[in-house]
Amino acid sequence: MESKHIIDRNSLELLFEVLKHRGFSLVGPTVRDGAIIYDELTSTADLPVGWTDEQEGGTYRLKRRTDGALFGYVVGPHSWKKFLHPPIRRLLKAKREGSSFQIVTEDEEAPRFAFIGVRSCELHAIAIQDKVFIDGKYVDASYKLRRENAFIIAINCGQAGGTCFCVSMNTGPKATFGFDLALTEALENNRHYFVVEVGTEFGAEILREVPHEQANAEDAATAERIVAKTAGEMGRTLDTTSIKDLLYQNYEHPRWDNVAARCLTCGNCTMVCPTCFCTTVEDVTDLTGEHAERWQKWDSCFTMDFSYIHGGSVRSSAKSRYRQWMTHKLATWIDQFGTSGCVGCGRCITWCPVAIDITEEVRAIRGEVRE
Amino acid sequence: MNSFIPHPADIVEKRKEARYIFTFRLRFRDERLRQTFRFEPGQFNMVYIFGVGEVPISIVSDPTDPELLDHTIRVVGRTTAALEKLKEGDTVGLRGPYGSRWPLEDFKGKDVIIVTGGLGCAPAVSVINYIVKRRDDYGALKILHGIKTPKDLLYRDRFRAWRRIPNTEVSLTVDHPDRQWKYNVGVVTNLFNQVRIDYQNSVVMMCGPETMMKYAVRGLLSQGMSEGRIYLSLERNMKCAIGFCGHCQFGPSFICKEGPVFRYDRIKPWLEIREV
């Protein structure tokens, strides 16, 4: 698996065909409503051909590239969690029987996804959600099935966004694990090709069905050069030194009031975050009252309902809710799951309507920001 | 096996404890479950009512009889209000048991001090029931209960019955007494001066409002109680009980997994933070 391979632009199309033929639903990046989102793909033509994105705090814009790159953007508002941990899903169905009821069991047919274009930070995010849903005392069977079924094609980042900081979080930009195949897209000397690294036996099996050749040393070096350049272009940095202790010791820092004065508690950061996993449930019945269902939905710690117990919300101030989110992400997560909950993808910065920047907030708590 | 699926359980008996408080004695419909279900005092089940919702409720009956599971429920919201309308013979859903236990087995021979406050406090009832059933295994049982006003005393009959248990003391206190009140006045911590407690030979189990527990812990520590022998039962919003929904986080802990019963010294700093 150490050796690298080359496939050209057209072979990528064939790779898609092979995966479809094997029964996978292809999902990956595509342009919609002025953003690059993840959705079903039918061919490489659905990819964001020749598009890139510009990102800053509270800003996201698509721009035309001067070349025909397929993966020449960073990350959009979606993450793969929408497929593995869907925003809404039915937990159970029940049928009334007199004064009693019966649970209607159905065997879940888990979709078989092939994820096209997973970034290194996103591989880390998936690994983090694995710890939440698979590696603990309890297992989310539905997540596990989707996860086991997934075929993952990673893409090494050819450029960094204005809000990226994976280098700080040690999560990128080069994919190092958790993929079946990893591609580096190269557009050089009038060639458009992908350097391919194989991550699993199954990945190798799929690659064998697609025309490819052995990568020579120069091609391999090109791929390394591309990610090295990306690593040097990070739009943001975050100093993670003793970050757990820093946040544990600063629950009463005045900066929380400062950020609360700006935070709209809209929850956007939690929706775009690739690791945020919280959910709520909703019970519904049909009009006859004979059939009941229980649905799980993504939830956000920014709502008042989230911490409501009889008598009131535990976290009624905006300050306590922002503090909960950020402290969870960067500190308590480490105690809970042995890893940071942040992968440095920058989505929470880009998609915050008032451009609150987690890296800036950490600097402020470190006393490195003048107010 | 889907961890989100409740199992039908019949209401074998419904007992009214006080206004808005009732106990369901539940029995799993499935025979295999009835035989394999085991729980520890302090643990809870998720109780589901068809089409309405699901709530975490602690099991107050004895672990040696896991076929009949008592759940004392207080009406505080939509789901508990709907549960109250159910009758004997009706069916609810159950899944569990979840959470940590009161470490009663580890403290045989010791005095057990129960400190409770406010309304209800079912988790403490499981401790009392456990000790009553094994009275000779433990030293003195002292139940200290603080409430705001006399009308908040919900388990009048139960307190009366507990007083009659051998080697058991029940002390009640209210913040605001009325003319008929014949017990103590003041916050629950005042009782520590009145009740004789052998601090070297006791373990404390507590549940109630967090502010009350915080002050009670302070009072106990100042009297010489050790931090490692105080246990508290905490409460948070809970949707799943299996560590997935994120609602019950208390600092780094998930109340559903590491709690609801915590040893005081393990959560001490978090109790001091407001809105954590």
Strand content of chain B: 25-35%
Q: What's the number of helices of chain B?
A: 7
Strand order of the largest sheet of chain A: 3-2-8-9-10-11-1-12
Principal-axis shape of chain A: globular
Strand content of chain A: 25-35%
Could you walk me through the main structural features you see in this protein, from its secondary elements to its overall organization?
The complex is a heterodimer of chains A (371) and B (276). Chain A is 32% helix and 26% strand. Chain A has 371 residues and is of the alpha+beta class. An 8-stranded mixed beta sheet of chain A has the order 3-2-8-9-10-11-1-12, sandwiched between helices. In chain A, strands 7-6-14-13 form a 4-stranded antiparallel beta sheet, with no helix packed on it. Chain A is globular. The model of chain A has no long low-confidence stretch (mean pLDDT 96). In chain B, the strands form 3 sheets. Chain B has a 7-stranded mixed beta sheet with strand order 10-9-8-7-11-12-15, with helices on both faces. In chain B, strands 4-3-6-1-2-5 form a 6-stranded antiparallel beta sheet. In chain B, strands 13-14 form a two-stranded antiparallel sheet. Chain B has helices at 31-36, 78-84, 122-133, 156-163, 191-194, 210-222, 264-271, and strands at 7-18, 21-28, 44-49, 53-58, 69-74, 91-98, 111-117, 141-147, 168-174, 184-185, 202-207, 230-233, 249-250, 253-254, 261-263. Classes of the chains: A alpha+beta (371), B alpha/beta (276). At the A-B interface, strand 6, strand 7, strand 13, strand 14 and strand 15 of A face strand 1 of B.
Q: In short, what is this structure?
A:
The complex is a heterodimer of chains A (371) and B (276). Chain A is an alpha+beta fold and 371 residues long.
